[in-house]
Structures are given as structure tokens and as C-alpha cells.
Design a protein that fits this description.
Blueprint: E1 8-12, H1 18-29, E2 32-38, H2 42-55, E3 61-65, H3 71-85, E4 90-93, H4 108-135, E5 140-145, H5 158-177, E6 182-189, H6 200-207, H7 218-230, E7 237-241
Parallel strand pairs: 1-2, 1-4, 2-3, 4-5, 5-6, 6-7
Helix pairs in contact: 1-2, 1-7, 3-4, 4-5
Amino acid sequence: MSDSLPKRTVLVTGSAKRLGREIALALAAGGWQVAVHFRGSADDAAKTVEDCRKLAPGALIESFQADLNDEAQARGLLPRVVQHFGAVDALVNNASIFEHDSAKSFGYEALQAHMRTNTGAPVLLAQALHEHVCQRSGTGVVVNLLDQKLWNQNPDFLSYTLSKAALEAANTVLAIALAPQLRVVGVAPGLTITSHLLSAEKFDQLHRLSPLGRSSTPEDVVSAVKFALENQSITGTTLLVDGGQHLMKFDRDFSLM
């Protein structure tokens, strides 16, 4: 990043590993100073910080631990990042929990856990960023990671789905309430990264189930996040990045197909 350009700082939640790590690495390579948030994966976060620093020599890159299920820790995260970097320009709400329940097994405890981390924390962090940019008479942007399953619903992972549906609604509400200082944009990937629930062969098979013959790759999602961060005319909407999977009907979640 040129010394003549102002240094921009982004907080990426849940960026120690998986998709969050890919977002952090790409933004560091693109000239952003990155706050790498993690809950319990300290070693993974340290590796992400190390790799980001290699991609952005001289840029400030640091990790921050917080359990977003805890309201006090969620509220305290962005002020800690501001204290370290001096200013924060953007927030990528990537961290989430994804635990299975259904209409038959649904209960308050599971719903509350998903709502706290997947919905409540992103709203609190957006609130904190808005207060911060107002204090410095600036502007900022929030990108919320959502899920194509909101447009292609199935009965699996009920509490997770409800929490992401609430976050998608918050895109609209926050885009109105926090304008003009903040833009708020959703990015909804399809099947992007495999998990312990899917074999490599099964993942490849499911990844091809889309009108385009491929779902999203980490690079696709990163590209959409960068576009949302940079385009000054986008707010209150969601970019679906899934190869068109939301146009197909799936009776079960990918992990249970």
C-alpha cells in the first residue's frame, strides 16, 4: 500500500481459519490493516496474523480474542481494536456458530446461542463502528456474511437459519438507521468449504449442484466482500454468491444430503 494513501483498517470476526482467514489474507494483500478476531483458536489466529504480515509488510496486523456469545466481550471488541489501530473503517461479520437442530429438537438454549453470536454480536459491532465513525466525522461499511439457504430453505439447522434470517433483516434496518455514516451489505455464499460432515468426494458432488455447475469458492466470496467494501453505492442489500444454488430446491442441508 502506498504511503501516500490513508491506511484503512478492517475488523474481520472469526478470521483465524476457514473462510474468515481467506478474507483476512485477501484484504491484507489489498492494502488493508487487519484486526484478526478469534474466540478459541489462538494458534490459528497467530498463523493468520503472520501470513497477513507477509502479504502486507509494514501494515499493522493484530489478533484480538473475544467470545461473541458474551455481550460484554462483544461490546468491548471494537473499542479494543480502535485503541490499537487508532481508527477502524470497516467490519466484516464472519464469525458464526453452526450447530444442528430441527423443529423437533428446537429449544430456547440453542436458539439463544445462535442468536447471540450470529445476530446480536454483528448488530452490537455495527453499533460500535457507527459511534466510532461519527466521532471522527467519517464513514464506514459493515459486511455481514449470510447464507444462500435463506433463499432456499430446508428444515435442517433451524436455530442457525433463524439467526441468519434475523441478520439479513438487520441489513435493511441498520442500513436505514445508520446511514449516511455506515453502509451495510450482506454477502451470502453457497457451499464453499468442506467440513468434517462431508467427504471430499461428496463435497465435490454437492459443489457442482447449481445452474452454473459450480457453487462459490473462497476466492468468489472474497471478491464479493471486497466489492461490497469498495462500492460506495451499495447498502441495505445482499449479494448472493453461490453459482445460483438458491434457484434450486434442496430438501436437506448440504451436510445431511
